[in-house]
TrEMBL record, chain B:
InterPro entries: ARL2/3, P-loop_NTPase, Small_GTP-bd, Small_GTPase_ARF/SAR. It is found in: Cytoplasm, Cytoskeleton, Microtubule organizing center, Centrosome; Golgi apparatus membrane. SUPFAM superfamilies: P-loop containing nucleoside triphosphate hydrolases. GTP binds at residues 24-31, 70, 126-129. The gene is arl3. PROSITE patterns: ARF, RAB. The lineage of its organism: Eukaryota, Metazoa, Chordata, Craniata, Vertebrata. It comes from Xenopus tropicalis (Western clawed frog). GO terms for biological process: cilium assembly; protein transport. GO terms for cellular component: centrosome; cytoplasm; Golgi membrane; microtubule cytoskeleton. This is ADP-ribosylation factor-like protein 3.
Amino acid sequence: MRLKRFLLRYFPPGIILEYEKGGELKTKAIDLLELSPTTDVDLVVEEIQKAEPLITASRTQQVKQLILRLQEKIGQQDSRQFYLFKVLRAHILPLTNVAFNKSGSSFITGSYDRTCKVWDTASGEELHTLEGHRNVVYAIQFNNPYGDKIATGSFDKTCKLWSAETGKCYHTFRGHTAEIVCLAFNPQSTLIATGSMDTTAKLWDIQSGEEALTLSGHAAEIISLSFNTTGDRLITGSFDHTVSVWEIPSGRRIHTLIGHRGEISSAQFNWDCSLIATASMDKSCKLWDSLNGKCVATLTGHEDEVLDVTFDSTGQLVATASADGTARVYSASSRKCLAKLEGHEGEISKICFNAQGNRILTASSDKTSRLWNPHTGECLQVLKGHTDEIFSCAFNYEGNTIITGSKDNTCRIWR
Amino acid sequence: MGLLSILRKLKSAPDQEVRILLLGLDNAGKTTLLKQLASEDISHITPTQGFNIKSVQSQGFKLNVWDIGGQRKIRPYWRNYFENTDVLIYVIDSADRKRFEETGQELAELLDEEKLSGVPVLIFANKQDLLTAAPASEIAEGLNLHTIRDRVWQIQSCSALTGEGVQDGMNWVCKNVNAKKK
């Protein structure tokens, strides 16, 4: 084994080692999820050196420099105020979801008008219109981090795979018997998982365009799914009140997370795949140990349905959005509520962190999006302008651009 | 509302819930009717660019009413909403005689849709508060409603503005959905 070079990953903080083994180029990541600007660097280097044979004594100085660079990046304060950069009168009917590619150079919007559009973030120009679906385009994703492909899931029961560069459709995946409402690429970008109102999830092979697996077992609609960071687990959240954990690629169900007393609205892994967070109409959010499938905490406090849940990129914070018009931030380790985000005048249906973890963005039926400090709960900015409720919102990786998609048929870029 | 609530309303409705699709040409008064049903303010209504959904309780039913924009360019998208429809309500501006042919054509096309086959249809002859409004009988005749044989149907004159006739129509809906749901 021979170390070739280091790659730096800012968010979540980590060092990627590129090395040679038996003539093959490989990579492995050293996660530094708890690194902060005040962490003792020499101690961290020492620990890494102990645990990682590729880091020899001669490399320690280099590693130290990398960690200092990460600390500098993490410590950067950003008091940016966003302004409305562009209104994209994108679609002739309401938007559904929006998503960025990894670099943030382009983003996509799905709509009731049966199209998905690809946009250039810097100019706000439309790059492609992906046409072919026969009903609402609901679930949309880039195959991040690559970003050269787009998957769209539609109420027409099909999923389509497109080239992000040319807008050409590679495959149409047929097999679901009801609306497709959620989808995800695995991190290797070899598979697409789709979840449907027909109560099943399916895995599709990107190369061949064939169905690889059907995951059956839920008793009601699947409305949320996500892969873990390594791609060997998939979780599906269902209106049957449960979440299933599936082994990939075997398709074996290894856990069913039972405990919620209402429909699931969202289910997410944290970065190191140790925890699963689930949000439910039963007004609570639960944390589960992903290894044994046991519930380790119930996060309470909301007075109405919890509509979305998300981890920050390091997995230290959990944020929930509720129909009660508030959002909450909890510590993933202490499970205590750290902050209550109050101010919206309608239900909050989407919540996300920026990659840096120092801002939260919420989308609400009160026609505004709001920016918050996750640690203090302070509302930093109200993004006003949409004339109807906001269905979706997203940060780019840099954290300096926001997009919002609304029922008012427009998408807005804020930066 | 949020996307998730839309998904919940997309499910085929349980026994005591009814999914109602409200269609008709632009300016027929669909949104006014929806707001009248929900007892909301009807003084500031603008053309619907997408859709509105409201749930109202009536005779032990929860009526989930989908009001879909009627402008010509978005009419091809009406079929996005056909799935799981229990009752179709078609709204006509009874005073806009110039567009009777157009509205008749749109209705005929809807009745031909496979996904709406057998679905009970209530036609609201709206805007009866206007002096120039054609009576329901004249509209029924002009639209050849008597030729509809593949489903139950009813025409009801009403004014979404004053509320007159609206409840009678909804009573018919509840009575007839009952038959179908059982």
